[in-house]
Amino acid sequence: MKYLPIDNQLFINNRKKFSAKLATNTIAIFNANDVMPTNADGTMPFRQNNDLFWLSGVDQEESVLVIFPDHTDESQREILFLKETNEHIAIWEGAKLTKESALKTAGIKTVYWLNELEGKIAELIGKCNGIYLNKNIHSRSASAVETRDDRFRKMIADKFSETTIHEVAPIMHELRAIKSNFEIKLMQNACDITEKGLRRILPFIKPGVTEYEIEAELMHEFLKNRSNGFAYQPIIGSGIDSCVLHYIDNNKVCNDGDILLMDFGAEYANYASDLTRTIPVNGKFTNRQKAVYNSVLLVMKEATNMLRPGTIFKEYNAEIGRIMELELIKLGLLDKHDIQKQDAKSPLFKQYFMHGTSHYLGLDVHDVGDFDWPMKEGMVFTCEPGIYILEEKLGIRLENDILITENGPDDLMKHIPIEAEEIEHLMNS
Question: Could you tell me the domains of the chain?
């Protein structure tokens, strides 16, 4: 991995919190993600299962984590199963975790090789009253791919049909939603790398530059700073494509007079950052562009101030809608009389601001967490209002990452330029 070693106390603490949530005399099993194929003998870059990583720090394929807090033998309460390394693998793929390096990474003393998994699992299940199994449960998940966890679940149901199966996802969602100080430092590092990327490209962008050249500059800066790259597929959309919410072609020329919307973030140690900035390609906002920009920025500042412990998402979104309505009236896009007659279920501001303002952020860009929960200290959310005027080929979105604290919102991107005048200055310096 490119990132520096992580203090294993993070994972030791995480397992303690997790173990305390399990029912008496139960076992939990987590599988690594698959190495996904492309074509011929090609594979996609490996990305670890986030739950397994959160509990162990193990960033290696074919790994299995077993947690059995009530086992009478202390050595069997936390177990890692790893792919056994050898000289051949070391030469062809690079060295894998040894039992000693696994201890250093995860703080887990008991390590077996994968060829012992089947027999050991049968032994452990014979001693427990139930088993917690993992599954990718997420409101936005729509994948048809069968995962290693899915296959493992089928095997357990077939071979141990009498064993009670529990879903581990509700526990993991609750725990992962609250970030520890260790995690905040990793996320702050991701945000800081993202800042370096933005500061690199602002003076680089001129009429005639291509969207993919901008993407390349960002990637260079990210890799240079120990990031694995983008936390998600970046959006670099100029002109009318600034109004396309998930534009990812990034293949056009940026023209004089265009606005350029850039939504990107660096990953560090598997933790995501998520930034959006919208800038004038020629380094100078028009009066109309600046007016829309400042409206979005005002909404963003008001929304950020509401990201506090106890805030209810439904109320948060409703208030942001009211603020956005006032700005859209000011911009001449909505009429206050039409707003008075609107259907509350289909508010008119959704014509110009059609997405949500905030989502959970962490190991996943759209991290796990329930939007029915009140906001709590330690949660991290994006704040990303936008106004999209298709007929003017003008889309503006701004986004920072906000930590909820007892003292109010802590902007992890507070040092990243955002005021229109500051953007212009940096582009022309």
Answer: 9-176 (3.40.350.10), 181-427 (3.90.230.10)
Dihedrals phi, psi of 330, to nearest 5 degrees = -60, -35
* E strands present in 289-385: 380-383
User: Which pLDDT value is given to residue 66?
Assistant: 98
pLDDT of residue 142: 67
Identify the burial level of 123 via C-beta atoms within 10 angstroms of its C-beta, where 0-12 means exposed, 13-18 middle and 19 or more buried. exposed
Q: Could you say which residues of the chain have pLDDT below 50?
A: none
First CA to last CA distance, the chain: 36
- In terms of Cβ atoms closer than 10 Å to its own Cβ (0-12, 13-18, 19+), residue 13 is middle
Handedness of CA 54, 56, 57, 62 (dihedral sign): negative
pLDDT given for residue 94 in this prediction: 79
pLDDT of residue 244: 97
Helix (H) or strand (E) holding 121, with range, is helix 117-125
**What region, left, alpha or beta, does residue 259 occupy, with left being phi > 0 and alpha being psi -120 to 50 degrees?**
beta
Note the pLDDT of residue 112.
Answer: 95
Burial of residue 75 (CB within 10 Å: 0-12, 13-18, 19+) is: exposed
> Residue 222: helix, strand or coil by DSSP?
helix
pLDDT of residue 302: 98
Cα 280 from Cα 209, distance rounded (Å): 13
**How far apart are the C-alpha atoms of 413 and 418, rounded to whole Å?**
10
Comparing C-alpha atoms, which of 254, 215, 261 is closest to residue 388?
261
